Amino acid sequence: MEILTLGEKIRKLRKEKNMSLRELGGDFVSKAQLSYIENGKASPNIKLLKYLAQKLDVDLEYLLETEKDQVKRYCKLWLEEMKIHVKLNNISDVEKIYKKIDKYAQKYNLAEILGENNLLMAEVYINRKLYDAALSNIQKSLYYYSNMSNIEKVIEIIIKEGNIYTLKGLYEIALNKYRQACSFYNQLPIKNLELKSNILYNISTCYHILKDKKNAKKYAEEVCKIDKQLKNKKRYTQSLLKYASTLILNKEYIEAENILKRANRLLQKEADKKTEAFIENNFGCIYLESGEYEKAYKHLIKAKQMKEEMDLDELPTTLFELYKYYLKIGQEEKAIKQLENAIEFSKKRELKNYIVKGLDYYTKYLIDKKLYEEAIAKIKEQISILEKMEMKDMLVTAYLKLGNTYSLLGKKEKALEVFKRAYTIKEIN
């Protein structure tokens, strides 16, 4: 990379054309004056710059471009190169470009470049599930964009920060981030409905995971209204799917089925296999709850096949429903196989939320079978994960479940000890 001062540019171009200072200056400017300009001891006026641009056969813009402008231009090119490597998930190449951009952008105080550079670095870390590293870069990006007072970009970054906490299984922290994004959104002079929809969608997702049925449904319904207004069929289909999921959570199965049918009609016009897989999964849930087991199985198997073909992280949600299906038809061995597959898949991909959910199902099954020692082992495994996820309410529930299971075994002192631990967590944290 070559960064030149104005004088260095003039000297370089003059020598490329084998011109002397006298030949370049002609009758317009003296040799001495040109020498001062080339050595950075004098600055030419715009009239002289136009003359020099014409004599040297270059655009005036090239001579006017400052060192900072040149660095910015190079950095923008590197950012484009970086985006390609992010898509290819080439972490070493991304890190090399990141360091190069950071070096020059820091030197010339290019805040926007630094913000984008850190955002891209975070993206590749997210792809590699290096969430703490991603958070570090996200927070740097937030710092630069905040200093620029770019509120819309700040909101986008806070949403992404919330998404990382969601991936880490820290849902209450994620929810606070989305609320923070909502607060910043209210400061926008010109509202961006798509951005608002993104915030509310994520808020609904957190409430859904935290089993706050009322708020999960409330925010999902708001998202549907916004996305319908935006007239983006793909977004609207996905928001209908989210809304249907919250209706299922609230056991409003008839309304959920109607919403899914509407989403399916829209989907027939859009080639979105991922959303189609989620719709199939939710149809399976509804038919399972209404006792239409053949229909449920048909939709769940289709959802499973589609998710496996696309290698989706959401596969466990379908395996959990198949577990329920096999239990309902009395095939316990097949049910447990689906459940164990879901937990194993989730462990391999570090999907903590699904591991916890799978262990929850497993524990209930073992307690129903009066296999209390095995149930205790599963609950302890669940607790060890929840303690790292900072999910107080779920952790308290797990400890209470552990205490109750010890009681069923007749281990009263152990049960009391665990109940005290649950109380301490609830009161202190």
Largest sheet: none
Structural class: mainly alpha
N-to-C terminal Cα separation, in Å? 54 Å
Radius of gyration, Cα only, in angstroms?
Answer: 30 Å
The proportion of residues forming helix, as a percent range, comes to over 70%
Q: Give the overall shape.
A: elongated
Low-pLDDT windows of residues:
none
Which homologous superfamily in CATH is the superfamily of the domain at 66-184?
Tetratricopeptide repeat domain
Describe the overall structure:
InterPro entries: Cro/C1-type_HTH (IPR001387), HTH-type_regulator_Rgg (IPR053163), Lambda_DNA-bd_dom_sf (IPR010982), TPR-like_helical_dom_sf (IPR011990), TPR_rpt (IPR019734). It comes from Caloranaerobacter azorensis. It holds the Pfam family HTH_3. With about 425 residues, this protein is mostly helical. Among the domains are: about 5-65, lambda repressor-like DNA-binding domains (434 Repressor (Amino-terminal Domain), Orthogonal Bundle), CATH 1.10.260; about 65-185, Tetratricopeptide repeat domain (Serine Threonine Protein Phosphatase 5, Tetratricopeptide repeat, Alpha Horseshoe), CATH 1.25.40.10; about 370-429, no CATH class. It contains 23 helices and no strands. The protein has helices at about 5-15, 20-25, 30-40, 45-55, 60-65, 65-85, 90-105, 110-125, 130-145, 150-165, 170-185, 195-210, 215-230, 235-250, 255-265, 275-290, 295-310, 315-330, 330-350, 350-370, 370-390, 390-410, 410-429. Helix 9 (about 130-145) packs antiparallel against helix 10 (about 150-165) and helix 16 (about 275-290) runs antiparallel to helix 17. The chain is elongated, with a radius of gyration of 30 Å. The chain starts with 5 loop residues before the first helix and ends with a helix. The model has no long low-confidence stretch (mean pLDDT about 90).
